[in-house]
Write a structure and sequence with these properties.
A hairpin with a 6-residue loop joins β36 and β37. The strands form nine sheets. A nine-stranded mixed beta sheet has the order 9-10-11-12-13-14-15-16-17. It has an eight-stranded parallel barrel with strand order 20-21-23-25-27-26-24-22. The chain is built from twelve helices and 38 strands. Helices cover about 20% and strands about 30% of the residues. The protein is an alpha/beta fold and about 550 residues long. Among the domains are: about 70 residues, no CATH class; about 100 residues, no CATH class.
């Protein structure tokens, strides 16, 4: 089926397998292309833009993903999960003379919103979209970390800073897509490495600098084998604690990466999959950032989940879901945002431990509810079916929540990290835009020392200005201690610019047709044809590198 995207006007195709999935989930085919479909869901997720404001129930000062000028009631986690309010008090009847989304927006405007989605944490108040972190700061979408700062989608890490989509690392700094590493800095697409610096696509290496495509090597610099004595001498000169020297080596590293050998996709242990950054997954098509998944299609970021279609950021045991954004142990649920430990949920948001709810917002431990109103089981199913038929007549059924219901501006949302838009583009597509707060860009006359040896405690918690964007940032005490202990020059960039730099080193979520440089077989890859890396199919890559 050929279609034209109603947002960007791009032509796209819906194949027979996708048509069968639409029939399975009993919804009409989407009118949005892959990119615009994910953009619409990601716009509902503000992962990393935090504000100070008051809890609207207690008046306490809190940190929130909702700015003070947002027209919503916002509660701290303690207040939101507490007994001081009940989402069922906002229940109302459905009006069949009006569109569904219009009525849902009215319900949404009255329901208190959770300031941060930060569950089961300890001393990790400034984290969001997270579970089970301890002593963490500005970790977003990362779970079960300890003593980690400035991390994104990272799991089970310890005592590390500036790490994204990396798991089970310790004492590491500035890394992407790397796992089971110790004492490493500037590491990308690598695993099981110790005390390595500026490496990419390496496995099981120890004491290597400026290297790519190495397996179980030791004492290498620029992919050349050295004696232990020569290595340590050059290491001392290269890693001398100077930020300027570190930047020079990083620039050398970026050029080195451009000519490295790469597999057509990032990941391992996959079967019948297309996409990128795939691990331990089977039969996942056009999907990205998956671990332990099966039977997924058009999914962006999922963990330990099965049987999902057109979903974004979902995992930890989720299954049989369609068009869901931010689901955690969500089952048989469709067209929702932030569903946690629930089953049979449709067109709802902020749902915790519920079963069979439709069109609800902000309820916990409930069954058979529609628009936050309780029904008997048979009444629930009868009314639910009538509302679905009504939505089919209004043209709403099967569509994700419209932009008018989104609580965030586009440049506050996670969408901007995957699909960047400027203000004009965002407004043209119908998204909101938030202007910069000038208070975040105060002048700072404090200069961050170039060398670690010159870094002293006087800089802790002082207002600093990012050299790239001018935004203010601070260096806290645990961060300061890490830099001194690990001989890492203190950054002169804010954490957002550092994150953006790491993000730019990941491939975009678009597939291209290419050929393996060795055997010539057709491959799907996120490396565009104009890239300079040598792209191999998986069998040839394993022969060439491993």
């Amino acid at each position: 089926m050929k279609k034209i995207c109603t947002q960007c006007s791009a032509a796209f195709n819906i194949d027979q397998d996708e048509l069968k999935l639409y029939e399975k989930f009993q919804v009409p085919p989407e009118d949005l292309c892959f990119k615009c479909s994910h953009m619409g869901r990601l716009a509902f997720r503000n992962e990393r833009v935090l504000y100070n404001r008051k809890c609207d129930l207690t008046g306490d000062s809190i940190v929130s993903i909702y700015s003070p000028d947002k027209p919503y009631k916002v509660y701290s986690a303690k207040a939101w999960y507490g007994d001081g309010w009940d989402g069922m008090d906002y229940g109302r009847d459905f009006d069949f003379n009006r569109p569904f989304f219009e009525q849902f927006k009215e319900l949404q405007a009255e329901i208190p919103r959770l300031a941060l989605i930060n569950m089961k944490h300890e001393n990790s108040d400034y984290c969001n979209m997270t579970v089970g972190n301890k002593n963490c700061y500005l970790v977003f979408g990362g779970d079960m970390n300890q003593d980690v700062q400035y991390g994104t989608l990272c799991m089970h890490n310890k005592d590390s800073i500036d790490i994204d989509i990396s798991n089970k690392n310790e004492l590491c700094y500035f890394m992407n897509d790397s796992h089971d590493c110790y004492g490493c800095q500037y590491v990308f697409d690598s695993k099981n490495c110790n005390n390595c610096y500026f490496i990419s696509d390496c496995i099981g290496c120890d004491e290597c600098i400026l290297c790519t495509n190495l397996v179980k090597n030791k004492y290498c610099i620029n992919n050349k084998q050295l004696s232990k004595e020569d290595y340590e001498k050059q290491k001392a000169e290269m890693l001398n604690g100077s930020r300027q020297r570190m930047r020079e080596i990083f620039d050398m590293f970026l050029k080195l990466r451009e000519t490295r050998k790469v597999k057509n996709y990032h990941g391992a242990n996959t079967e019948d999959c297309t996409g990128d950054y795939l691990v331990n997954s089977k039969n996942c098509i056009n999907s990205y950032n998956l671990d332990g998944c099966e039977d997924l299609r058009n999914v962006l970021f999922a963990v330990n989940s099965n049987d999902m279609f057109n979903c974004t950021y979902i995992g930890h045991g989720s299954e049989v879901t369609y068009n869901v954004m931010s689901g955690f142990t969500a089952s048989h649920s469709n067209l929702c945002y932030f569903v946690f430990d629930s089953v049979n949920v449709d067109y709802s948001e902020q749902i915790i431990s519920c079963d069979n709810v439709f069109g609800c917002n902000g309820i916990k431990h409930k069954k058979f509810c529609i628009f936050n109103k309780q029904y008997k089981e048979d009444e629930y199913y009868e009314l639910r079916d009538r509302i679905i038929e009504h939505m089919k007549k209004t043209g709403e059924w099967g569509k994700f929540f419209p932009k008018e219901i989104c609580c965030f501006a586009y440049n506050e949302s996670t969408a901007t990290h995957y699909f960047p838009l400027n203000k004009e583009q965002a407004l043209e597509y119908g998204y909101k835009w938030k202007e910069k707060d000038p208070k975040e860009y105060q002048k700072s006359y404090i200069k961050v020392p170039d060398k670690v040896e010159d870094l002293d405690e006087s800089i802790i918690d002082k207002v600093l200005a990012c050299k790239d964007c001018g935004r203010n940032y601070k260096i806290n005490k645990p961060e300061f201690n890490f830099y001194k202990r690990q001989n890492v020059p203190a950054p002169d960039q804010c954490s957002e610019c550092r994150h953006a730099e790491r993000l730019s080193m990941r491939n975009p979520v678009f597939l291209h047709d290419r050929n393996c440089v060795k055997c010539g077989i057709d491959v799907k890859t996120t490396y565009s044809p104009d890239r300079t890396e040598k792209v191999f199919c998986e069998p040839c890559y394993l022969k060439e590198v491993v």
